[in-house]
Amino acid sequence: MVVLGVAASDSHAVANHLIAHSLRAQGLTVVNLGTCTPVSEFADACELYPAAEAVIIGSLNGHIHEDLHDLADAKLQGRINCPVIVGGNLSVGSAKDESSTTRLYELGVDHVLAHPDSLVPLLDSLRAVGAPVTRELVDTTAR
Questions:
Q1: Fold of the 2-139 domain
Q2: Cβ(123)–Cβ(22) under 8 Å?
Q3: Rounded-to-10 torsion of CA 86, 92, 95, 100
Q4: Sign of CA dihedral 48, 53, 59, 65
């Protein structure tokens, strides 16, 4: 089971739905929180679904650093106990550098994906060390 959503300031839904569909096709249970999801809602979902293997957060508008300002606190408080994975367009502007990734790790992100094709292999490796796989899709995008 994974918790999926789009960062708080981001309303891009298409990639979110495609990722949910792809993960479901791989046999994963997906709790899809949809777009404009603050860290507090990811934390609430982790408390509601303690079997979650990972929290997956996408961003296309490039403002994920601001959106995740309270991630470290949520993890420190034990509200998010699984790995946090981010992917998408993770900084504003066309020039990308390593400082964006470094800042995400400093905010409490565990894995930064450069390409969506690396998501399933990463989840497989996480699963190998712990959490079981379940086989249904939970889509809560109609809040």
A1: Rossmann fold (3.40.50)
A2: no
A3: -40
A4: positive
User: DSSP string spanning 35-75?
Assistant: SSB-HHHHHHHHHH-TT--EEEEEESSS-HHHHTTTHHHHH
Q: What is the pLDDT along the chain (143 residues), one digit of tens a residue?
A: 999 999 999 999 999 999 999 999 999 999 999 999 999 999 999 999 999 999 999 998 889 999 999 999 999 999 999 999 999 988 776 556 678 889 999 999 999 998 889 999 999 998 887 644 333 333 444 43
**Cβ–Cβ under 8 Å, residues 82 and 111:** no
87 vs 15: CA distance, rounded Å: 11
Can you read off the two tokens belonging to residue 81?
Answer: 């106990």
> What does pTM read for this prediction?
0.88
Greatest alpha-carbon span in the chain:
40
